[in-house]
Design a protein that fits this description.
Elements: E1 2-4, H1 14-18, H2 20-28, E2 34-40, E3 45-51, E4 54-58, E5 63-65, H3 68-80, E6 89-93, H4 99-107, E7 112-117, H5 120-129, E8 136-140
Parallel strand pairs: 6-7, 7-8
Antiparallel strand pairs: 1-8, 2-3, 3-4, 4-5
């Protein structure tokens, strides 16, 4: 496992440093989706899109963070009544772009959250385009293939 340091530069993201250009993209996202960055590999296609002022992490066939999936998680958390306000430590397997961490932080700003993600591109984008929070730590976990030989 490799720990990804999310503690540095908490106040400034790549989006902040882009300044006016990112602000224009953000503003345009209320009219139509704006693609910020894409990644193509043998395993997957990923894109980061601004839509209605939100950063969405998408594959070719699904939304992974902050879009419809975020709404589904919010409804699920309400229906199941996880009582997030009483949780002190939370583990998120498959951190993605931090959508679930945001829901938990909204319900309980004092919860310590550990996110585990296997995709380095997603974590790179998360660090570049999202403000890091002190209560959220993210590590990358690469599982070796063929462990049971």
């Amino acid at each position: 496992m490799t720990k990804v340091d999310t503690s540095k530069n908490k106040s400034k993201t790549q989006a902040d440093s882009l300044g006016f250009l990112f602000w224009l993209k953000w503003l345009a996202s209320f009219i139509w989706p704006v693609k910020v960055v894409t990644h193509q590999s043998q395993e997957a296609y990923l894109e980061l899109v601004l839509f209605q002022g939100k950063r969405l992490l998408n594959s070719r066939n699904a939304n992974y963070s902050n879009g419809n999936l975020q709404t589904a998680y919010r409804r699920l958390f309400e229906e199941v009544d996880l009582d997030l306000s009483t949780r002190h430590r939370v583990l998120i397997l498959g951190f993605g772009f931090g959508g679930v961490a945001q829901l938990i932080t909204d319900a309980n700003p004092n919860a310590d959250i550990l996110g585990v993600e296997s995709n380095t591109t997603i974590l790179t984008w998360y660090k570049a385009y999202c403000r890091q929070k002190d209560n959220v730590k993210v590590i990358i976990f690469k599982m070796r293939r063929n462990l049971c030989r």
